[in-house]
Every structure is written in structure tokens, then in C-alpha cells.
Amino acid sequence: RGVPIIAFTGNLDSRLAHMSDCVIDTGVEKEACGLGLAPTASTTATLAVGDALAVVLLELKDFSEKDFRRNHPSGSLGERLKIQVREVMITGSKIPVVTTGTLVRDAIREMDSKGLGAVLVVDDSGGLKGIFTDGDVRRTFIRWGLDGLARDGLEAQSIGEMRIDEIMTQQPKFISPDVLAADALAIMEEHLITVLPVIELDGRLCGIVHLHDLLGKGEFKFLV
Fold first, then answer.
1. pLDDT in tens, 39-58
2. Pairing, β 128-133 against β 169-170
């Protein structure tokens, strides 16, 4: 798949060595085993070189305690859910968001490009006004017909040309960045939703958290 292979081996002429992009020699003169057969000194050498390489990468990547906790949450979902929402939420340009007045077709494009199954709607000051999900898309077409035309009396209007304000869900559920991830998960389970907008105390949108990020299957998993 194009992933570089780095091999630790004491046999530079081995099949593994020839198949690897980079080979690190961990060979030893002899094993500590009295028979010279059981891997003893060679395994110790491999562990030592591996640890040394890991430490170097930690320094080069400026790897912090926060990064370590995100990638090694004590091997349990319980430990993961003890952290705050701000540590797992999606922020910045990765948030699927449009402003009020945006055409539905453009809102759907934004939703599709960010891949979270929803788009948030904010006003000019960044205040959350609503949410539009992929489920809302389906329900909209079911309500107004699969031809994509919303009918008002004798006139028909393309759903894509409507304003997102007309069909978004207003006053959606949201959460603070300072609450526990477990609380976010509880809200999702109670209301059968998979995303939650994250709002600062001043009412401005600062992020979005997805169910997969709480469970370690999305952005949360690939931060480093």
C-alpha cells in the first residue's frame, strides 16, 4: 500500500531485510543463552534500539503528555470518557458550518465535504442558529417529493434553491467544551443523535463532536 517498511534484524541478507525500505542492524555476536539458540541478547538489543528510536521521535514531534493520553487511554473506553469534550472535538476549518441565508444546495455540499453527516448553521457573529443533517435531507425529500420540488400553492421551488433557514432544525442540542466526554455521549444516547455542536459560554460555536470521536474511531484516533 505504499507504506515504508523499517526492519530491525540481525541478518542483513534475510528476506525481511531485502523487502524493507530501511534496515536497522540489531545483530549480536552471540545469544546469552548457554546453548546459543534461544533469542536473548538479540531481543534485548531490538528492544533497546526500538526504545531509542521512539524517544527520538517523541522529541522530533514535540510529543506531549496530552498526545500520549489521547493515543493510549489506559486501554479502556472508561478512561477515554473521563477527558473533556474540548480534547476530542473537531475545530477550525474541519467544522461543517454555513451562515444563515445559505442556499440548501451549498449547505449540502459543505456537509458532504466534511463527512460528519451534518452541517451547523450560525449567524454572522458565530452564534449557533440550527443544524441540518443527512437525515433531514432524506426527510425533506420524503415530505416534498423525490423530484426535489417544494410546492407552495401552485408554485414549485427547487429545494436546492431554498434558504437553509427554512428547513434546518432550530435550537439543536449542544454542549460546552468543558464538560466530560461521557456527558456528551449520554446526550447522544438519550436523543439518538451522532453529533453535538460545542458552544462557548458567550454563545459562539467553537467545535463539533462526533460519536466516533468519543469512541476512538474518528478524528480522535488520528491526531498524531
1. 788 889 889 998 998 899 88
2. antiparallel
3-state secondary structure of 10: coil
Report pLDDT digits (tens) over 143-180: 776 565 655 544 456 778 889 998 899 999 999 999 88
Cβ pair 100, 107 in contact under 8 A: no
Q: Give me the helices (H) in the chain, please.
A: 15-19, 41-60, 65-71, 77-80, 104-114, 134-144, 164-167, 181-191, 211-214
Q: Which helix (H) or strand (E) holds 192?
A: none
pLDDT digits (tens, 9 = 90+) for 175-197: 999 988 888 888 998 899 999 99
CA 146, CA 138: separation in Å to the nearest integer?
Answer: 9
**Residue 145 confidence (pLDDT):** 67
CA distance 22 to 8: 9
Average pLDDT, the chain: 83
Taking the domains of the chain in order of start, what are their residue ranges? 6-63, 80-215
Residue whose C-alpha is closest to residue 31's, from 23, 21, 42, 22: 42
Closest Cα to residue 123, out of 152, 100, 97, 146?
100
> How many Å apart are CA 22 and CA 66, to the nearest integer?
30
What class does CATH assign to 80-215? Answer: alpha beta
At 93, the amino acid letter reads: S
Compute how many other C-beta atoms are within 10 angstroms of the C-beta atom of residue 174.
18
